[in-house]
Amino acid sequence: MTPRFLPGLLAASLLSAFAASAQSPMQVIAQQPPGSGSDAMTRVWAECVARQTGQAIVVVNKPGANGILAINQLKGLPADGANVMTIGMSQMTITPFVHRQPPYDPLKDFDGIAVIGTSPLVLVVPSGAGIQRLSDLEKVARAQSGGLNFGSPGKGSPAHLLTSALTDAMKWPATHIPFVGEGAGLTALMGQQIQAMTLVIGTAAAQVKAGKLVPLAVFAAERSSLMPEVPTIAEAGGPAVLARPAWIAVVAKKGSPPETVARLNEATNKCRSDSQYSSRLNAMNVTLTDSKPSDVNAFAERDIAVWKPLIDKLGLATE
């Protein structure tokens, strides 16, 4: 082969490699199992962003240890923009701090891409217990030994911390009963084995409609369109600082290409105008968010400022 052909062959090879790279699928890691709410939101996001960018996106589930397994997987992959993950308020603002030696740093280990949306949590009690408002719940807390028995999907969950923060601020005696998942706690609540629980509003709404639960307050700054008759936590007489909806975001490994981060952020924001995307997430009671990459850390810093002192105060950190 004569040397004069080499530059042309090299250029063709580079173009071919670039084209192959452009067509290779992106991987998005879901930190909850298939069929979960977080997984469903991840798949809706992946499908829409794939439509917007023309790049295939593959969802890979890596559940376990409240997101730590998924985070470790992301951290073990190249920071090349081909791997991202969806992450929740819990993993960004609570999970690291319930360990005395945090397994990761949520503010330093990721490049934020976008906040997909928010979803409020609601404090509920079982029907037939004679509780209609927050003041009624206070009477129950003060009337029984050990105080109010409240459940959560697990120690260190947003539901646990929100309810703990409420009882602490209101100076109610209370005992936390952790369950393995929201479903087990819901069953105990409807069976009146516990007196109260904080649930994601989508879970609570069906049981409220069926007459099995009574909602007392939404942990949000504004009332939910799903339950417009239910007061916010401040309107109900609780501290306004607890207006903390759950949220889900997309992140990449720290050091990922800025152009990839910008492209995925733009695609996510464009998805808000995609009727299929918005209707599917609205059906999951997610309020869509228009966000910049920096908003992921801004959301995290805002909530860490509340959760970390509470975790320390309640002594929730373990080895």
From TrEMBL:
InterPro entries: BUG, Bug_dom1. CDD domains: PBP2_Bug_TTT. Keywords: Signal. Residues 1-22 form the signal peptide. Pfam families: TctC. Belongs to the UPF0065 (bug) family. This is Tripartite tricarboxylate transporter substrate binding protein. It comes from Curvibacter cyanobacteriorum.
